[in-house]
Amino acid sequence: MTSAGYVALCHGQQWLRLRRASRRPAAARRHVRPGLVFAAVFLVLGIPLAVRHPWLLLAAAACGPFVAVNTLYARVNRERALPNGLAAVVPAGPGCRGRPRLPACSTSGARSPTSRR
After folding, report:
1. 68, 19, 79, 92: CA torsion to nearest 10
2. pTM of the model
3. DSSP per-residue string spanning 7-47
4. Domain map of the chain by residue range?
5. Using CA of residue 107, residue 108, residue 111, residue 112, what is the dihedral sign?
6. Residue 10, CB half-sphere, CA atoms under 13 Å: how many?
7. 71, exposed or middle or buried, with CB in 10 Å at 0-12, 13-18, 19+?
8. Best label site of 14, 17, 72, 96, fewest CB within 10 Å?
9. Neighbour count for residue 114 (Cβ, 10 Å)
10. CA 113, 116, 117: angle at the middle one, nearest 5?
């Protein structure tokens, strides 16, 4: 699900960048359909997951400013700028280690391979 959102975001940012920077109008248009398809997949898979685990909405809101920085740099065609790189990398560091864990879904009653008898 996350990869569909990431790909949709990449296509959207490429469309935003190429519609101003490219000499060919078709260069930007080729990113519209894939971006919309991946955005639809993201929404179809993401809404039920967000209903079941509402903390995901807080995590998505925390990523909002970093996505906004990336989008602004894509708009001015400066994706390689240092602030843009930091905005892309910094949230992945401590955010991945500090996220809450989903409860285990064990309905079979079987013991885990790491448990001791």
Report:
1. 40
2. 0.68
3. HHHHHHHHHHHHHHH-S-HHHHHTTHHHHHHHHHHHHHHHH
4. 2-93
5. negative
6. 9
7. middle
8. 96
9. 5
10. 115
Q: What is the pLDDT of residues 16-66, one digit of tens each?
A: 989 888 888 788 999 999 999 999 999 999 999 999 999 989 988 888 999
* Residue pair 61/110 in contact by the 8 Å Cβ criterion: no
- CA 43-101-48 angle, to 5 degrees, is 20
Neighbours of 14 (CB within 10 A): 20
Radius of gyration, alpha carbons of the chain:
19
Residue type, 49: L
Distance between CA 16 and CA 24 in Å, rounded?
Answer: 14
State how far the alpha carbon of 23 is from the alpha carbons of 13, 19, 42, in Å. Answer: 17, 9, 31
